[in-house]
Write a structure and sequence with these properties.
Number of domains: 1
Strand content: 15-25%
Largest sheet: 5 strands, antiparallel
Protein name: beta-lactamase
EC number: 3.5.2.6
Order of helices and strands: HEEEHEEHHHHHEHHHEEEH
Oligomer: single chain
Number of strands: 9
Organism: Variovorax paradoxus
Strand order of the largest sheet: 2-1-9-8-7
Shape: globular
CATH architecture: 3-Layer(aba) Sandwich
Pfam families: Beta-lactamase2
GO molecular function, one term: beta-lactamase activity
Length: 354
């Protein structure tokens, strides 16, 4: 779905084929360039010996699309010497809906807690009380569903109504505590997608304009408010770095944050539904992750992060691209997908030869 309220185009992409689900946000994140490293260290000072040339070249091609506002990192857990390669790995960029993975994990943690009142089969309300912009699954529905369906919609279709329902159940502060527990210093999440939209529309900090306010945003009606453009802000945003996203999936997919094997299985099941994965990851390879995209005024973003298992080797990856002006995220999606796919296929080729 594409939304064009006035000059603004808001998109959120769970699929690199071009399906769009709007999530209104933008950012311009610029940081000093980072280089490449071998192993798990954080001092990325040079192209380390042992990183396949084709992988390094493919990462260079990806980051060349936005040299100062992109981040890419792949890390392999191959024996006997793991290696990693990346550029811009520590840049705090607008990661769009890639951050919804944290909401999924915290919901599952809440559900597995002793005495919990919520679970995948627990019924939840779907109404204008939670409805948000760009909700291709729940947007036109009123009634009840179960949280399992809500989580599927949040990850597979990036449904923002589903996201806000799941976030309310997981608790924004508890999601932030999980991010802190994982050691992700460059990651920031919102309280709700409606709060993000309300903030950008010019509402006072912390005010939710509600579904009537969302309808005004869609129609281009500012309702007397002065819209903001500081999408990177300390209250309502969707930020992360390639390094944080890789560190997250490396930890989460081992079950570090879950008390039960069932929760880890559910995290993997839902994370495998992200529709961008099958267009970037080599064919027939198991993978987990989440992507997203944004267009706001002249700012644009595309992202995809997760992990694939090739020849039983975990390969964890993150690709984040921010840019101003020029092509929209929709127009640049094919190039983004091709560049990310080239990196992962180069890694797969290297592992075949190992």
């Amino acid at each position: 779905m594409n939304i064009h309220p006035g000059k603004k185009s808001v998109t959120d992409i769970p699929s690199l084929a071009g399906r769009r689900h709007a999530l209104r946000s933008a950012a311009a994140a610029i940081a000093a360039p980072a280089l490449v490293a071998c192993g798990g260290g954080t001092s990325f000072s040079s192209f380390a010996q042992g990183v396949p040339t084709a992988v390094s070249q493919a990462i260079n091609e990806f980051t060349a699309m936005a040299p100062d506002t992109s981040g890419a990192l792949v890390r392999t857990d191959v024996s006997p010497i793991p290696w990693s390669a990346g550029q811009g790995t520590e840049r705090k960029l607008f990661a769009a809906s890639a951050v919804k993975t944290f909401i999924l994990a915290q919901f599952l943690r809440e559900a597995e807690a002793p005495g919990s009142s919520i679970g995948l089969s627990t019924r939840c309300e779907v109404s204008d009380a939670q409805r948000s912009i760009s909700s291709s699954v729940l947007g036109g529905l009123t009634g009840t569903s179960n949280y399992g369906n809500v989580l599927d919609a949040m990850i597979a279709r990036s449904d923002n109504t589903a996201t806000d329902i799941a976030m309310a159940a997981a608790g924004p502060d508890r999601v932030r505590a999980l991010i802190a527990q994982a050691g992700l210093a460059n990651t920031q999440i919102f309280d709700s997608t409606r709060r993000v939209f309300s903030y950008l529309a010019g509402a006072p900090i912390g005010v939710d304009l509600g579904w009537p306010g969302m309808l005004k945003i869609l129609s281009g009606d500012n309702a007397g408010l002065t819209p903001r453009t500081d999408v990177i802000n300390p209250t309502e945003s969707m930020l992360s770095s390639a390094s944080d996203l890789v560190a997250w999936y490396e930890q989460a997919l081992t079950g570090k944050f879950f008390a039960t094997a069932a929760s880890l299985r559910e995290f993997k099941r839902i994370s495998s539904q992200a529709t961008a994965l099958w267009q970037v990851v080599p064919a027939d390879v198991v993978s987990y992750g989440k992507g997203g995209s944004i267009d706001w005024e002249d700012f644009h973003a595309l992202s995809l992060a997760g992990q694939m298992r090739f020849n039983n080797v975990p390969v964890t990856f993150a690709f984040v691209l921010n840019w101003k002006g020029g092509e929209t995220s929709n127009e640049r999606t094919p190039a983004f997908g091709a560049a990310a796919s080239k990196v992962l296929n180069a890694v797969a080729d290297a592992l075949r030869k190992a």
